Inverse folding.
């Protein structure tokens, strides 16, 4: 049994339920969220479905998800809708509408019902959406404060700087407390007044040294009359960027344009040309390149020694050799990746003893041409011949060799996103060649693992905001650790002003009217009455 009632839509219904971050706003009566209101609207459409109507329920977040395929079963539809949860990312409406259009292919009477607060983003200009478009708006207010930017910058030899930005998306000025935690400890908390509809930048160079992670938060003072209906954009995270460039010092007896050219062409290297007549400068460097010259005392940093003129505490010069035939490269060593010495000619090279700490990476018939290893807590490479007595600088293997050695001295960062990414975004990971696995710990403590089967990996399981920790494993040993931040930082989601209409397929779509005829079954009430009668009779 049923009665006829007005309904929003009929036929094949593609129900698109907005589960983006803005739907967490609690501006509804009773303090419930927009998403809960949207679910009640969806359940109302289910309750008025007519005979022969079918419904597909699609949850629209960063990755659209079909909660339930086309069915007329109201029990299954209610379960799917009641079990849905709002996300914390920007919704991909283009993919959601494409998914709905594909699902409705072949149906004669199709209706696209969008239950949302109207923030469709780039999908607003999407052409060719099939069927009747219906829009059910939710939301009432626009008051929202958000941290819209948070990042750090560090230059070699300078203190790390903080840049943050607070945005007031509401229509009234608001006083807010901005707090900053450094590695979990409260560092500063200050009050700011943010004008309506404007941004307030915050710049500071007072951060402590050697920190790992920052967490910023917004709260309203106890006596504030302002409103902030969306909490998901009130917290942001950032990781320490560290010094971006590796500092190198070149000490050469004569100007070496081959070194100059290759160092100038490689990213991530800030090098200085020293004067051998003045000796080593007082400033410390990450890498010392000593070309045909040695100081009285070797510096404590990493070393690239080219054609050394005498013995040191690290090696003993024993003589020279002109037996440079058949140079062989240690191919299975990552430092020799893509290095080819078959066409390189060397006039002569020097021979050394006491280099048991080093691996012979390139060996000619008369002895090693290149050795490298770790000794006394530093990394040292020894090129045993003068560049001017070879054609190595004229070969393509020269910049490849230097790039490999620099990566060995300081492995490139596995993460190339110093400012983090948005919730739901994808991150590229570039693990070292000798790594076997990448282990990623998410903000909730759950762990994801990626096998290293290619040079660049992609990680997209970023539906939670916070700090992600990346461990690069070589066997069972963690060889490198880094972190990245995931934040909302979305003006589309933080602008929570509900839209009275949406633009789609070149048309302005106003709120849907209940101009269709549906059915509301009343058998549950009849069944309840029957049960009551039976209970009374039994009593």
């Amino acid at each position: 049994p049923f009665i006829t009632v007005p309904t929003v839509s009929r036929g094949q219904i593609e129900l698109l339920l907005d589960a983006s971050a803005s739907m967490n706003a609690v501006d509804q009566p009773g303090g419930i969220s927009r998403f809960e209101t949207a679910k009640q609207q969806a359940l109302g459409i289910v309750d008025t479905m007519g005979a022969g109507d079918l419904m597909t329920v699609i949850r629209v977040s960063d990755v659209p998800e079909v909660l339930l395929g086309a069915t007329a079963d109201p029990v299954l539809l209610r379960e799917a809708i009641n079990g849905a949860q709002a996300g914390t990312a920007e919704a991909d409406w283009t993919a959601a509408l494409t998914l709905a259009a594909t699902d409705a292919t072949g149906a004669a009477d199709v209706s696209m019902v969008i239950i949302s607060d109207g923030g469709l983003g780039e999908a607003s200009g999407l052409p060719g959406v099939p069927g009747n478009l219906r829009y059910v708006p939710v939301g009432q207010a626009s008051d929202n404060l958000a941290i819209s930017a948070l990042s750090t910058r560090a230059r070699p030899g300078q203190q790390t700087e903080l840049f943050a930005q607070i945005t007031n998306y509401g229509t009234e000025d608001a006083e807010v407390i901005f707090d900053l935690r450094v590695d979990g400890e409260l560092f500063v908390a200050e009050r700011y007044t943010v004008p309506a509809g404007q941004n307030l930048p915050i710049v500071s160079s007072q951060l402590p040294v050697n920190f790992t992670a920052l967490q910023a938060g917004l709260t309203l003072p106890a006596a504030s009359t302002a409103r902030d209906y969306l909490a998901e954009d009130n917290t942001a995270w950032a990781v320490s960027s560290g010094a971006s460039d590796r500092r190198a010092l070149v000490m050469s007896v004569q100007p070496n344009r081959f070194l100059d050219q290759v160092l100038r062409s490689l990213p991530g290297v800030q090098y200085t040309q020293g004067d051998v007549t003045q000796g080593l400068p007082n400033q410390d460097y990450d890498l010392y390149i000593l070309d045909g010259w040695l100081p009285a005392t070797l510096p404590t940093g990493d070393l690239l020694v080219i054609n050394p003129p005498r013995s040191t505490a690290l090696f003993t010069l024993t003589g020279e050799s002109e037996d440079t035939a058949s140079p062989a490269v240690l191919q299975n060593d990552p430092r020799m990746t893509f290095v080819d010495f078959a066409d390189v000619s060397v006039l002569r090279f020097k021979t050394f003893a006491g280099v048991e700490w080093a691996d012979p990476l390139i060996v000619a018939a008369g002895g090693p041409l290149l050795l490298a290893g770790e000794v006394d807590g530093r990394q040292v490479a020894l090129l045993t011949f003068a560049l001017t007595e070879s054609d190595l600088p004229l070969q393509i293997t020269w910049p490849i060799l230097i790039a490999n050695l620099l990566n060995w001295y300081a492995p490139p960062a596995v993460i190339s996103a110093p400012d983090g990414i948005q919730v739901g975004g994808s991150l590229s990971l570039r693990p070292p060649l000798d790594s076997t696995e990448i282990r990623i710990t998410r903000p909730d403590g759950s762990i994801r693992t990626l096998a290293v089967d290619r040079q660049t990996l992609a990680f997209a399981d970023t539906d939670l905001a916070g700090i992600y920790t990346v461990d690069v494993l070589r066997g069972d040993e963690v060889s490198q650790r880094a972190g990245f931040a995931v934040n909302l930082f979305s003006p589309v989601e933080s602008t929570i002003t509900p839209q009275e209409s949406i633009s789609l397929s070149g048309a302005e779509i106003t709120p849907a009217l209940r101009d269709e005829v549906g059915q509301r079954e009343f058998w549950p009430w009849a069944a309840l009455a029957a049960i009551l009668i039976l209970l009374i009779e039994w009593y």
Observations:
- Residues 523-538 form the longest helix (16 residues).
- The radius of gyration is 33 Å.
- Helices lie at 34-47, 74-82, 93-103, 257-265, 397-409, 491-494, 523-538.
- Residues 27 and 150 are 27 Å apart (CA to CA).
